[in-house]
Each structure stands twice: as C-alpha cells, then as structure tokens.
Amino acid sequence: MSSYDIAMVRSFVTVFETMSVGIAAEQLHVSQPAISYNLGKLRRLFDDPLFHKRNGRMEPTTLAESLYPELVEALGRLDSVLAQPLEFDPAASTRTFTLVTTDIGLIGLVPRLIQAIAAEAPRVSLHIEPLHLSSAADDLIAGRIDAVICTPQIPSKDLTRDILFMQRYAGVRAPSHPRIGDAPTLEEYLAERHVSISREAGHTVVPDHLSTLGRELDVAIAVPNFMALPGIIAETEYLGFAPKLTAERLEATGTARAFTLPFETALAEVSLYMLRRSVRSAAGAWLRSTIIDTLQDLDRH
User: Fold this and answer.
1) How far apart are the first and last CA of the chain?
2) Exposure winner among 29, 113, 144, 169, fewest CB in 10 A?
3) 3-state SS of the chain?
C-alpha cells in the first residue's frame, strides 16, 4: 500500500471516529482540504458518498459502516508492523507500552510490574488506561493498546490469553463494625447493606454465587469500580467484597478489615490478553514474558 493509499484510509477512519473533517485534520496534522481530497478519492473508488453532513456532524453511510471495521483493523495491523523494530533491546528502548487494567490491577499489580520493567528497561514507559470491556478486543486488534490484564474473559481468535494467577474473594468491613466479625454466618452477612461494584469491572463472582442460592445482596450504593470502596467502608457500616490480595492491602492501611465470606466462591482467573501477531515481535514477546514472569506468582488459593 502506498503512502497515498494509507493517507486515504487514515483520513476515512479518523473522520468516521470523530464525525468531523476539522477534528480529523487536527488529529492528523494536515489541512481540511487534504482530508476532503482523500475522502473524495475513496468516494470515487467505492462509488458512494461515504458520509452525509447533518447537524454539523459527518454521519456515515451504510457502506461506510461496513467498511470501517475492516479498514481500522488493516490500519492497526500496518501501524503495528511499522512501529515495531526488528530488534528490541530493553536496556536501550524508549518505547511506551499501553496497558489496560482495572482499578484493582492498578493498585495491586501495576506497582510490581513497574519495578520489573524499570530493572530491565529503565527508559521504557508504561501508559495505563482503564478497562472498557466492550472495546478491549477491538483496541488490541487495532493496535491502540498493547496488553490487557483483567478477570473477565475476552473471546477472540486474534488474541492470546495467559492465565497469570487465580484469586479468591474476601469481605471487607469497617475496622469497628458493630455486628460483623471475622467469620459471619450467611444470614448475618445478608442482613447487612452492601456496596455493589459495576459488572463492567468484571468482579461478579460474589453476586453470581448468591444468585445460584436464590439470594442477593441488599445494595445500599453502587459504584463503578473499587477505588471508592475504602472510603465508603471506613465511614459506614456497609459491607463490600474484593479480591483477597486487595482486601489484605486495605487491611494493611487500616482503612478496612478483611473477613471470610460465609460461602465458597469459584476461583477467578486473572489473565493477560495480547494480540496474537504482536507477541511474535521482539517487543511484544518481551512485554508478554515480563508480565508473566512478574505476576504469575501471585497465586491466591
């Protein structure tokens, strides 16, 4: 594909994503006429207008909707290939890797990973983004991110999956909770009000298990992730749950006490996902092995 063809595809993809010729031009550091020219070539090629301007936005046609997934994937593959040097020297590299994980991963896993990377690759940078499960596979395939560490499964034939470790869950309560001790009964546990974590965060083991018993939590407050949990637990009598590793970290800070849940839950698998073709590159293979070597010992049976 010539640079001219690449420019056409990149213009199309950026206009599709931003719904604006002006914003696309700013992002690609070209003029608006250049974007319009590239779109014009594609319109003639496909004999389709591709976009209609409505209410100040560029709305895609049916054909453009069908072209976008194929073109963004092709562009991601090309960018991934062009960005990868044939050799990768961790000690000299200044590359930035983009890692997606949950807030729990950010608290419990990323600090270990930073230490490991710094020891071997002192000039490599790590960019952390929050997990959006619905777009994780597409972001990996398009080359927008390098790796995902999470509990929810991401089914895709284009991705590799390495199980890093298994984790159990523990309850968390205020240190001075008046009714809940270290091993409450099921009835004592369910009689309390609870903090619920969004299913998008992937930590559904506890509510899913209770559902099999025909029971459910009395939810007082629902939060999008675990970041809000310590403050809520410390200031209320609500109960929460967290991966055991995280619950132990909270207990060590004095903001909460961990307790044994009154039922056995399935072990949750924490996995690493990467694009299959990227792990065949020197840089991708290094990142994969570094993550596995650093985190695979966090088995929390």
Assistant:
1) 51
2) 29
3) CCHHHHHHHHHHHHHHHHCCHHHHHHHHCCCHHHHHHHHHHHHHHHCCCCEEEECCEEEECHHHHHHHHHHHHHHHHHHHHHHCCCCCCCCCCCCEEEEEECHHHHHHCHHHHHHHHHHHCCCCEEEEEECCHHHHHHHHHCCCCCEEEECCCCCCCCEEEEEEEEECEEEEECCCCCCCCCCCCHHHHHHCEEEEECHHHCCCHHHHHHHHCCCCCEEEEEECCHHHHHHHHHHCCCEEEEEHHHHHHHHHHCCCEEECCCCCCCCEEEEEEEECCHHHCHHHHHHHHHHHHHHCCCCEC
Tens of pLDDT along 12-50? 999 999 999 999 999 888 899 999 999 999 999 999 999
Asked whether the domain spanning 96-166+268-295 has the same topology as the one spanning 3-83, the reply is no
Mean pLDDT across the stretch 243-254? 86
Q: Is the pLDDT of residue 203 over 80?
A: no
Find out if CATH 3.40.50.410 is the number for domain 3-83. Answer: no
What pLDDT does 20 receive?
93
Domain ranges for the chain, please list them: 3-83, 96-166+268-295, 169-259
pTM score of the predicted model? 0.64
10's tokens: 């990149």
- Residue that has been written with the tokens 């939810």 in this structure: 219
| Mean pLDDT of the region 181-202 | 90
Question: In this structure, what token pair is assigned to residue 117?
Answer: 């990377």
Question: How far, in Å, CA of 240 to CA of 172, rounded?
Answer: 5
Q: In CATH terms, is domain 169-259 a member of 3.90.1150.10?
A: no
User: Residue 237 has which token pair?
Assistant: 């009598």
Q: Are strands 147-150 and 96-101 parallel, antiparallel or unpaired?
A: parallel
